Amino acid sequence: xxxxxxxxxxxxxxxxxxxxxxQMGWSTWNTFQYNVTQSLVESTAEAFETRGFAKxxxxxxxxxxxxxxxxxAADGHQQADPTKFPDGIAALADTVHKKGLKLGIYSDxxxxxxxxxxxxxxYEELDAAQxxxxxxxYLKYDNCGGFEGNTRPPAERFLAMSYALEATGxxxxxxxxxxxxxxxxxxxxxxxxxxxxxxxxxxxxxxxxSGVCTTAYCLNTGYAGVSVLTMIRKMxxxxxxQKPGAWADMDMMEIGNNAMxxxxxxxxxxxxxxxxxxxxxxxxxxxxxxxSVDILTNTDIIAVSQDALGTAVxxxxxxxxxxxxxxxxxxLSSGKQRFVVLALNYGNATTDISIPLASVTGLSAALGxxxxxxxxxxxxxxxxxxxxxxxxxxxxxxxxxKVLVFSEK
Length: 409
Ligand SMILES: *[C@@H]1O[C@H](CO)[C@@H](O)[C@H](O)[C@H]1NC(C)=O
Ligand SMILES: *[C@@H]1O[C@H](CO)[C@@H](O)[C@H](O)[C@H]1NC(C)=O
Ligand SMILES: *[C@@H]1O[C@H](CO)[C@@H](O)[C@H](O)[C@H]1NC(C)=O
Fold this sequence. Notes:
By secondary structure, the protein is of the alpha/beta class. The chain is built from 11 helices and 18 strands. It has 2 domains: 24-305, Aldolase class I (TIM Barrel), CATH 3.20.20.70; 314-408, Golgi alpha-mannosidase II (Immunoglobulin-like), CATH 2.60.40.1180. Helix content is 25%, strand content 21%. The radius of gyration is 21 Å and the shape is globular. It binds 2-acetamido-2-deoxy-beta-D-glucopyranose (NAG) (3 copies). One 2-acetamido-2-deoxy-beta-D-glucopyranose (NAG) is lined by residues 323-324, 347-348. InterPro entries: Aldolase_TIM (IPR013785), GH (IPR017853), Glyco_hydro_27 (IPR002241), Glyco_hydro_b (IPR013780), Melibiase_C (IPR041233).
């Protein structure tokens, strides 16, 4: 769970362990919105096994908004819609747990949630206890339902649910979704496991909805509609905040939603992994094309995401050209892996990208004097370094990201 140390009134310190690597799973929202059902979760759990997602490390099945009835029960409890979940949430949690997977649910730090179902403001303890009793493993906690709810700052409303989850004694992953309001990278690490750093993504590689702004510190207005490239752009300010136990969440992925080319989907996945975003699939995994399954289950990219160091890549302005090429790099420390470099062509024409390794911040320190090899992950081919210590990537296509992993020999 999260990283702070609770000090009980008796003075007993209770340390809570961190999730060491970004969480991996699937959520209903991007594709199904309010149409969430027991059978959808069950068929997804099946596909997690048959299509290789579970083996690749995806383990959370997350029910987003739409699972509830419109009002609380007479005794105040939130209740699952009996048409959508005929056997109830506890039975579904059992089914999911028997497959070695985990179940997540959704609520909101306002009076209402985003779909006008009952939010948890003022009901934090009752709701957290209900989730624990059902066997829930993960809570996504949203920020809709204004009224007096939004006269209290997010940090305060989101902290209340953190205490309530902690009080249940069950290990429930706590995923904040307050869209980057009031800069959660400065405070959310105190009491959550991950926090959304922006308004919502939408299924587009490069085109943004109206009201979207491109930096982390400029907040979106209205419903966001952030493209993949803009979400990556916002991370220039935030990648340095990434650390185990407090992951900035770039939102659910749009891979497999028929909105991008294969190269664009590879770029999307490469950056979510190297920037240490949670990897939450937002597509229909039962019907998804095999090319998208292959991207989402690429073991080399997942190894970058789940690397033991938990440090995100940083933008390297000296090697990048605005609106044409961006190069990012950062250290790794799992097995023999020591460093990763991403080189993206986001211009209009096929291009060559030259990377003088002396200019890659942190690379020589990460490699030390050890001999090393370099592999480009998507082509699964070794890459050579010239005598002048430069890597020349030729013919990088529009939308393509080359991912270079440096490993000790
Ligand atoms: C949800 O179900 C309704 C009713 O079948 C349908 O009209 C709507 O398009 C569905 N929405 C999504 C996002 O699947
Ligand atoms: C799957 O691939 C086919 C053929 O390339 C394409 O027409 C279809 O739109 C794709 N489906 C999705 C969900 O991406
Ligand atoms: C890409 O094309 C657009 C539209 O033609 C143009 O405005 C832009 O300057 C081009 N970008 C680059 C990097 O060439």
